[in-house]
Design goal:
The protein is built from 17 helices and 13 strands. Strand 12 and strand 13 form a beta hairpin.
């Protein structure tokens, strides 16, 4: 309300020219005098015969004409204050000539007093000038009466000038406060305008940056409503909109699992997961159908309030279609080359075996050389087998003792552990029967245990645990098989991995930076093969690691633990 009134005053008064403001300020006194003339004409026409009254009326009219005619904008800034001081003269004549019928005519002096006091120029002078002018206005008739002025005549009207002095001081104080407030508001307004301009500039900069990056970005509030979306994401979103629909809900968008065929449930979709407060990285989905479908890697981070509440989330959509195609082509190439390797390799192994069947017929050094060749051929055959291990892998679950598999795996890696100064620890029940493919599960466990030893080159401890439990509330234990899910965990205190390396740990041919720097042998196939084996069992494998603090790999195979016989 106050701001609206200030805006109206500024628009209709302060934003006008100085001449207009002078006229508007003089207008109330002029209108009051006009009413006084009308009042005298109706009730006291004899007042027009009073010379002082007539002079006062003409002076008021002349002063108003001066207000209209003088170009105040061209004169010194305080020149307009001559008008209120001239008003004192005109009011003095009007008061003297109208006291007989208008006893309150002297109150007209309030108008010039207010004008002088509210002008904001030389405030102390304004109070003194208003007081002296009012005093002269009431004393002048006494001195011009033709008789000697008595103390009683001079003292009787003194109350009126003192009242005007108080009124002037009050107006000066109020005006000074208002001026300070107006200046403060103007400064605040300038600051707000500057802040608004900076905010607009930052908003434009943010919009330019967001639209420049080749990653789709979406910012949603706590209810999942879009707050910001860049142009890249708008293009991706258009692919997910079914034909014939303009603004479909999230559940109707064409979003599919990594196989590009299975529709994702509403709860599994990236935006929904982000709104629920989840934080994830490299969550792959497919958007759209047919030739226009795109593989997208999504990353989400929640936005929290100061008190920890959910304020929304930021979701990034990275088009990885070409990368997925390249990886698929690479896998096909590796598989084809591996198949081509296997045929001549099998032949080499066969002939080496034939040659070594009768070692007594060959010189000793030739037998030694052939033995080295056979061992390397077997090693190359193992490498080809690893390269061919993929989603085409099959498993044949039978009841096997996982505790025995763990013991065998630890025993096979003990020489390498002793070489690295690694202490091996096993935490497992004596018997843990489970429905698994013993060979494949042993291969997966061998990969994890050998990695744990390799990536602890400076010594440390590797702990292998196996237990039965349930995925909803499991706890490591070595004396019970009462659960239905099989848990197997390999924990080391080695070099560990960064968060970025953990995200790529199960990617074929991936090697951690520290492994490359330390020249730790490996091809980056073990974890990828291990995950394939675990997935074929219907289970999951997770990794927890920190650089310099070690790594924990956990396999969970649901519903495979058997009751001991």
């Amino acid at each position: 309300m106050t701001r609206t009134a200030d805006t109206l005053i500024r628009r209709h008064f302060y934003d006008r020219s100085l001449r207009t403001r002078v006229v508007l300020t003089q207008a109330p006194l002029t209108l009051t005098v006009a009413l006084m003339l009308a009042h005298a004409a109706m009730l006291y026409p004899q007042a027009y015969g009073n010379l002082a009254f007539t002079i006062g009326m003409w002076l008021h009219a002349a002063i108003f004409v001066v207000c209209l005619a003088v170009p105040w904008d061209r004169l010194p800034p305080a020149a307009f204050l001559a008008i209120p001081y001239l008003d004192f003269v005109a009011i003095g004549f009007s008061r003297e000539g109208g006291l007989q019928y208008a006893t309150s005519a002297g109150l007209l002096v309030l108008f010039p007093v207010f004008w002088i006091s509210a002008a904001g120029l030389a405030r102390r002078t304004a109070i003194a000038g208003s007081t002296v002018a009012t005093l002269l206005m009431v004393w002048t008739p006494v001195f011009l009466a033709g008789t000697e002025a008595t103390p009683d005549q001079l003292g009787k009207p003194l109350l009126f000038p003192f009242m005007m002095a108080g009124f002037s001081a009050t107006v000066v104080i109020i005006t000074a406060n208002m001026d300070r407030q107006r200046v403060a508001l103007q400064e605040k307004d300038i600051q707000l305008r500057e802040a608004l301009e900076q905010s607009r500039h930052r908003e434009q900069l943010l919009a330019a940056v967001v639209d420049t990056v080749a990653v789709g970005l979406v910012v949603v509030d706590g209810d999942g409503h879009d707050q910001l979306i860049n142009s890249t994401q708008e293009t991706l979103h258009a692919l997910a909109v079914p034909r014939g629909m303009v603004d479909p809900p999230e559940k109707d968008l064409l979003v599919f699992a990594p196989d590009a065929v299975t529709p994702l449930s509403a709860e599994a979709r990236p935006v929904r997961r982000a709104v629920q407060g989840e934080s994830f990285t490299n969550y792959q989905v497919w958007i759209g159908q047919g030739d226009s479908a795109r593989a997208v890697s999504t990353t989400a981070r929640p936005i929290t309030t100061n008190d920890g509440g959910n304020a929304g989330a930021v979701i990034a959509f990275h088009d990885v279609t070409e990368m997925v195609a390249a990886l698929a082509a690479k896998d096909d190439f590796v598989a084809n080359v591996s198949h081509e390797f296997r045929t001549p390799l099998t032949s080499i192994q066969g002939y080496l075996g034939l040659a070594l069947d009768e070692p007594e017929l060959l010189p000793a050094h030739v037998v030694k050389y052939l033995g080295v060749a056979e061992r390397n051929a077997e090693r190359l055959n193992d490498l080809v087998a690893d390269l061919l291990s993929s989603d085409s892998m099959t498993i044949s679950p039978t009841v096997a003792d996982v505790a025995g598999i763990v013991a065998d795996s630890v025993a096979s890696v003990r020489p390498a552990a002793d070489k690295n100064g690694v202490v091996l620890t096993v935490e497992s029940p004596r018997s843990l029967p489970a429905l698994v493919d013993a060979g494949r599960f042993g291969q997966a466990l061998d990969n994890l245990v050998s990695n744990a030893v390799k990536y602890s080159p400076d010594g440390g401890t590797v702990t292998v645990r196996a237990w039965a439990g349930n995925a909803a509330g499991n706890s490591a234990g070595t004396g019970t098989t009462g659960g239905s899910d099989l848990f197997c965990e390999v924990q080391d205190t080695g070099i560990g991995m960064s968060s970025a390396e953990q995200a790529d740990a199960f990617t074929k041919f991936f090697r951690a930076e520290q492994a490359l720097k330390r020249s730790i042998p490996g091809l980056g196939l073990g974890l990828q093969i291990t995950r394939t084996i675990v997935t074929k069992h219907g289970g999951t494998i997770t990794v927890q690691s920190a650089r310099g603090k070690g790594t924990t790999m956990r396999m969970v195979l649901p519903g495979c633990v058997q009751d001991p016989v």
